[in-house]
């Protein structure tokens, strides 16, 4: 080959050699960058799944959420106890007034209700006397009542009581020849008796044509009136008193026309804002202290809500990084179980608890200053939030292997238990409907679907068996034989078979968890990926330290928040 040709080929060879070396350097840098990203991801994942103590030892991160949860448990429980004591006074005042009203307005009330009604009458004379007795007692209320009661205004801003009667429009009945001629249309007639009318001679309004009752077509008589009262016992607890409006209704029910008129008494108590309160002493100052305490609880729950929400958001970002890396390197998707590992259910539980506590605390503050009166909703919110707060404590016990058996067993057995309950529930519903339709007329515990379900649930747990059998009426031999077959088959099926299988499912999950704790849990893709981090730390300490340094140098500023993922 001529020397000129060799001279011409030399620069080309140098350029090709330079390009190949540049490609190798770029490939080396790309490989190094990939290893850096992988190592950084492992470090972030490892840090995310640490418990608060390990995080503090690793990066000296103060466990703010743990401290807030401990403080929140103390504060929320204290708040709930104080509100519970106040709510008990409210409920006790309502119930005691209802009992007092029954003694005041129901003639011959014995103090014990008959089934779901208060008392009953069996003659026309007793019916008239009971109606006139309630009206006279209303007129003499201030002279006979022991409570702080007064007359209240109705919807028409009138003081008095209203008496209404419902009856069939018209009809005639001749029992001698079993003849009945009646119009099924129902008419309602009402009369209003104010205090001025009641102050007159009682015979004037008693002899009115309205009170001439034709019992064979009478359906019911209803007496309704409004009363007002004030609860002074709250002053002893250094709280502002509550003012109440009682809407009372006495119903004489004759719809069955069986010779027995059932008398129902219903009292609906509503808390109203007292118009003019002049109370001296330390009540007002105590109210201010309670409001400050509730505001502090709201601030604590708000801080906990923000921190837990931030952790969930950052966990989702870390999950996205891991999914993209796994798909890029291994060309396959991460299993659903690993994806759900990033969604911390305890944080969701804490967020729900914080929201309920904040809303309940705001309602409690409004109730305290008498702007709202919804005690029931506030108690449900605060009670449920406190339940969730204490359940959340299990999360921190779960960091210890000997204490997390309950959580792991519940997680493992829950899907199987739900499927089993769905199948057993169909049989349970069948027994419920069958017992209600067949035994309802003959057994007090089977008169309604809810009472049937409660009775059967008690039988499953072995409660009240003898009483259920003893109350079976033997008026119909066929029904008695069916009821025995019904109860024996239910107890045998649910107590000895279904309940035993239910317990066996949970026991099987518990045994599985115990074996896993002894022999190790099955490793998923995520756990294998994190396991490589430990092996690399042991075998390649120098390389790992170098990569960690490069990781810190090459980390983007936008990724800094991902270090403190949890």
From TrEMBL:
Alphabetical list of Gene3D superfamilies matching this protein: 1.10.287.70
Leader peptide range in chain numbering: none
Transmembrane segments: 289-318, 339-359, 379-397, 417-439, 485-506
GO molecular function list: NAADP-sensitive calcium-release channel activity
A Pfam match: MCLN_ECD
Main subcellular localisation: membrane
Domain Mucolipin extracytosolic intervals: 90-275
Catalytic activity from the UniProt record: Ca(2+)(in) = Ca(2+)(out)
Subcellular location: Cell membrane; Endosome membrane
Membrane-topology annotation of the record: Multi-pass membrane protein
Domain of life: Eukaryota
Assigned keywords, A-Z: Cell membrane, Disulfide bond, Endosome, Ion channel, Ion transport, Membrane, Transmembrane, Transmembrane helix, Transport
Name of the protein in question: Mucolipin 2
Naturally occurring in which organism (per UniProt): Rousettus aegyptiacus (Egyptian fruit bat)
């Amino acid at each position: 080959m001529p020397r000129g040709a060799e001279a011409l080929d030399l620069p080309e060879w140098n350029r090709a050699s330079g390009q190949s070396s540049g490609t190798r350097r770029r490939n080396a840098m790309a490989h190094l960058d990939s290893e850096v990203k992988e190592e950084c991801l492992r470090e972030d994942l490892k840090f995310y799944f640490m418990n608060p103590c390990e995080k503090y030892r690793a990066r000296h991160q103060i466990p703010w959420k743990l401290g807030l949860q401990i403080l929140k448990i103390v504060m929320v429980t204290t708040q709930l106890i104080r509100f519970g004591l106040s709510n008990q006074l409210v409920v006790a005042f309502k119930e005691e007034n209802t009992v007092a009203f029954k003694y005041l307005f129901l003639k011959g009330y014995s103090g014990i209700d008959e089934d779901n009604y208060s008392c009953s009458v069996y003659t026309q004379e007793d019916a008239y006397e009971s109606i006139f007795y309630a009206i006279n007692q209303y007129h003499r209320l201030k002279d006979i009542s022991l409570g702080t009661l007064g007359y209240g205004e109705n919807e028409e801003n009138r003081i008095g009581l209203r008496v209404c009667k419902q009856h069939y429009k018209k009809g005639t009945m001749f029992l001698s020849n079993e003849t009945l001629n009646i119009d099924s249309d129902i008419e309602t007639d009402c009369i209003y008796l104010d205090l001025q009318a009641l102050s007159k001679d009682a015979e004037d309004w008693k002899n009115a044509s309205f009170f001439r009752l034709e019992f064979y077509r009478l359906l019911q008589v209803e007496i309704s009136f409004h009363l007002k009262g004030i609860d002074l016992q709250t002053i002893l607890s250094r709280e502002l008193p509550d003012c109440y409006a009682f809407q009372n209704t006495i119903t004489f029910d004759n719809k069955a026309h069986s010779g027995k008129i059932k008398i129902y008494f219903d009292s609906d108590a509503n808390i109203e804002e007292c118009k003019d309160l002049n109370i001296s002493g330390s009540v007002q100052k105590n109210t201010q202290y309670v409001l400050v305490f509730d505001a502090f609880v709201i601030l604590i729950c708000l801080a906990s809500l923000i921190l837990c929400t931030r952790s969930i958001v950052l966990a989702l970002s870390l999950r996205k990084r891991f999914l993209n890396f796994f798909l890029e390197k291994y060309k396959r998707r991460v299993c659903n179980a690993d994806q759900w590992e990033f969604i911390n259910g305890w944080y969701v539980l804490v967020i729900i608890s914080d929201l309920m506590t904040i809303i309940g605390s705001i309602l409690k503050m409004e109730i305290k200053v008498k702007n709202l009166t919804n005690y029931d909703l506030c108690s449900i919110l605060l009670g449920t939030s406190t339940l969730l707060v204490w359940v959340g404590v299990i999360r921190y016990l779960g960091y210890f292997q000997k204490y997390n058996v309950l959580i792991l067993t519940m997680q493992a057995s829950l899907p199987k238990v739900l499927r089993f309950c769905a199948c057993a529930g169909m049989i349970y519903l069948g027994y419920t409907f069958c017992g209600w339709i067949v035994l309802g007329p003959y057994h007090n515990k089977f008169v309604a679907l809810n009472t049937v379900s409660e009775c059967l649930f008690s039988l499953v747990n072995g409660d009240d068996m003898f009483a259920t059998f003893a109350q079976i009426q033997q008026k119909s031999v066929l029904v008695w034989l069916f009821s025995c077959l019904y109860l024996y088959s239910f107890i045998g099926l649910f107590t000895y078979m279904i309940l035993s299988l239910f317990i066996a499912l949970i026991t099987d999950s518990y045994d599985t968890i115990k074996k896993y704790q002894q022999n190790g849990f099955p490793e998923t893709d995520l756990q294998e990926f994190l396991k490589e981090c430990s092996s690399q730390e042991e075998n390649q300490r120098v390389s790992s330290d170098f990569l960690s340094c490069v990781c810190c140098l090459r980390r983007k500023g936008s990724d800094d928040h991902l270090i403190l993922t949890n």
